[in-house]
Amino acid sequence: MQRLAQQVTALRPDLVNGDASYGELAWNQASPNPGGTSHRHRIWTSGGEPVAWGWARLPRRVRLSDGSVRDVTGASLAHQVHPDHPALVDEVIAWFDETAAGLERSVVAGAADVSALERWAAHGYGTDPDALGDTGSWTQLNERDLTGGVERPRLPDGHRFLTADEAGPEAAVRAHVDAWAPSAYTLEAYERVRSTAAYRGDLHVLVEAPDGTMAASTIMWLDEANATAEFEPVGTHPAHRRRGLARAMLLHGMHLARAAGAEHMTVACLGADGHSSARELYYGVGFRAFSRDAPLTKPATA
Fold first, then answer.
1. Cα–Cα distance between 222 and 231 in angstroms, integer?
2. Cα Rg, the chain, nearest whole Å
3. How far, in Å, CA of 144 to CA of 155, rounded?
């Protein structure tokens, strides 16, 4: 699946939807029980190479860090189809409809993939109006070049950068859970993420506050084949926001990524007007919007 992401990135990077990027696929190993019955995968190959894949997430109960549970009642699909094999879109749709029969279904497609959007519409999928509102959940991909130089980071006094290798697993998990609470992230989930071939502990950056709190963190995913790296995720502890920590961490991360061989950087964020803070953060360190997703849905009765 990541190999296909690399191939599509090389050929048509605007067709890599938010669920199918090289880094997002690795990070999604943090999903609760990704190999269990609530997750179904299928890969289509040609000549021994992947040309399409689908990852269906079915109804499940998710336990969160505050002790609560969240019941997911519908089905969602992450997928990717090689641009040289557009006819496989219909096979991916048919597989998902069979796998999630009787459930409300949602999928994220690339807004630039006009032919694929036509095929989804032909199978009864329409634009999700809730996802496209002022506080909707559609995402945009942002990019910037690293070859022209990156500003030097400046942390507030008493703060310092650490890698996950230096901070340790418990600190890395705590940093994420604090930033995204309530969260389903656990040590077990982190071990799944860390076991992926794409993970590098030296590209997993944390900011330690003077009191020892891990105040911010991000993971960078280096795609050596395309000399690009992706921030995913990026988070700051609520009590440590608006102090310039995330900005400094992103700049520091880009210097690390450049030293590791990356010439290009990407990061995704929510694109709706009501979610401007993260977008402005990324714009402030040189990113600009590159592509966006098209969220689609199909009712349970269809």
1. 9
2. 19
3. 22
Q: Residue for token digits 């030293």?
A: 259
> Alpha-carbon distance 297 to 254, whole Å?
36
Condensed to tens digits (0 to 9), the pLDDT of residues 78-105 reads 999 999 999 999 999 999 999 999 999 9
Look at the pTM and tell me if it is higher than 0.90. Answer: yes
What residues have CB less than 8 Å from 290, skipping those under 6 apart?
13, 14, 140, 141, 142, 143, 266
Beta carbons of 141 and 16 less than 8 angstroms apart: yes
- Cα–chain-centroid distance for residue 41? 18
Residue 280 to residue 288: CA distance in whole angstroms: 10
Residue 35: strand pairing partners: none
Do residues 302 and 124 touch, judged by C-beta distance below 8 A?
A: yes
Amino acid at 190: Y
d(CA 53, CA 18): 14
What value does the mean pLDDT of the chain take?
Answer: 95
Predicted confidence (pLDDT) at residue 34 exceeds the cutoff of 80: no
Collect all residues with Cβ–Cβ distance below 8 Å to 101 and sequence separation of at least 6. Answer: none
Given pLDDT bands bounded at 50, 70 and 90, which one contains residue 302?
low
- For residues 49, 57, 98, 7, the Cα torsion angle rounded to the nearest 10 degrees is -20
- The phi and psi torsions of 54 (rounded to 5 degrees) equal -135, 140
Please count the residues of the chain: 302
At 58, which amino acid appears?
Answer: L
For 83, the 3-state DSSP assignment is: coil
